[in-house]
User: Which sequence fits this backbone?
């Protein structure tokens, strides 16, 4: 049986610290994702994209609820940056939606690709002693990939300056992940 943190080196986080960071950052990320969809819905909610945005937001809410419960159950300190993610998520969602539905979908694709990479690494790092958490992360990862696919089906790649927009959003996500793990 593999255990979380097995083979760690001196100075590496303990298993408990790894799990706490995982829960903290995933809670922050799902909170940010919910806010992105709230921003997109504020702009595009009455368009043909409203139902699909509401579907994705509902799934993000389920993810957020799980990690909110995990924070309480495991006594993990949430990130101190939630007020920042509250504003930044909404601004990112509304801002990309103001550029058009394709830009909003490009935002979804970029965020979900960054989260796919993040969740994959987390699942690989968790041992069999954290099978329930690992399984939940893998299930959520599949739903995030569904969101990416929805974005692609809705012409995300035809957004103005798609590559630049995508790269900037992915970079921002990676910074937010690293900071939210610790702060």
Assistant:
């Amino acid at each position: 049986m593999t255990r979380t943190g097995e083979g760690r080196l001196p100075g590496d986080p303990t298993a408990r610290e790894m799990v706490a960071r995982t829960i903290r950052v995933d809670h922050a990320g799902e909170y940010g994702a919910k806010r992105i969809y709230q921003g997109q819905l504020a702009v595009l909610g009455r368009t043909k994209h409203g139902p699909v945005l509401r579907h994705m937001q509902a799934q993000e809410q389920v993810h957020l609820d799980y990690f909110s419960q995990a924070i309480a159950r495991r006594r993990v300190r949430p990130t101190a940056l939630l007020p920042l993610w509250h504003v930044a998520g909404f601004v990112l969602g509304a801002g990309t939606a103001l550029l058009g539905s394709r830009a909003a979908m490009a935002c979804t694709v970029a965020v979900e690709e960054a989260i796919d990479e993040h969740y994959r690494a987390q699942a690989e790092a968790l041992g069999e002693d954290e099978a329930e958490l690992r399984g939940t992360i893998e299930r959520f990862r599949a739903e995030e990939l569904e969101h990416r696919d929805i974005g692609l089906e809705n012409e995300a790649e035809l957004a103005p300056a798609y590559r630049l927009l995508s790269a900037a959003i992915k970079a921002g996500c990676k910074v937010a992940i690293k900071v939210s793990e610790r702060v």
